[in-house]
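User: Some background: our group keeps a shared notebook of sequences we're curious about, and every so often someone picks one and asks for a predicted structure to add to the entry. Today it's my turn. The entry only has the sequence so far, pasted here. Could you supply the structure so I can complete it?
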Amino acid sequence: MGCINNRAGYDPDWMGRSGTRADRLLDTGLALAAELSLPTLLQRIVDLAVELTNARYGAVGVLSPDGIELSDFITSGLGPGERAKIGELPHGRGILGVLIREPSVLRIPDIGRDQRSAGFPANHPPMGSFLGAPIRAHGRVFGNIYLTDKQDESEFTEDDEAAVLVLATQAGVAIANAQLYSELQLRERWLDSVREVTTTLLAGDTARAALQLVAQHARELGNADMATISVPEGNGLRIIIADGAGARELLDVEVPLAGSLSAEVIRTERTM
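Assistant: Of course. Here's the predicted structure to add to the notebook entry:
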């Protein structure tokens, strides 16, 4: 069995020993800071991690809101066909789960010989050496960088570990910036929607036209397939406005109120 190295920091002499890699990390930090699309940013992070450490495979696992499992898994080194053969993406068990429960750098010579390993699913490529590190954004763990199969050596080195720690720090800052930019863009879209609805009302258009705009913008901003506006009628609700797929068929449809989510929203006057 090989040793496992967990550390919060890295060797202060690393920069002197790995000047070329340090220069690349400086360039990497600038490149990540300039990327504001979160999906593109996550792919760049894992691709850069693989390149910097000469790993065969890499991934960024994004934590679910409750922080107990993975909600997304972005990979490098696997083609679309290989990913499809593996099937369901990991949820964060075995070695991946160790980093979720104990968010600190983790270096293992051989995954298969570690007693915490949960093994691999069918059609998964064999993997040996492992290196992982948490990514923190907005003061909490956003996800983890996972690297496997050091290609030019039997296992990942301390220099690899130090480089990944620096990259994880850069990634956390870049992710926080991308999330903030996305939030600002969404707020701007909401404000534009409010302005358009207000302009419609001030221009003397009908209330129905304004409500149709409300439904359209709510669907678009919520990235939903369908949005409806209903009013109480009898013991239920009647859909008076619909926008999206199948909107025409939904108009004037009566929906039972008892036991529904809509009933709870009306009762509590809160979004759900």
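Suggested note for the entry: The longest helix spans residues 158-202. The beta strands are 55-63, 70-76, 106-108, 130-137, 140-150, 226-233, 236-244, 254-256.
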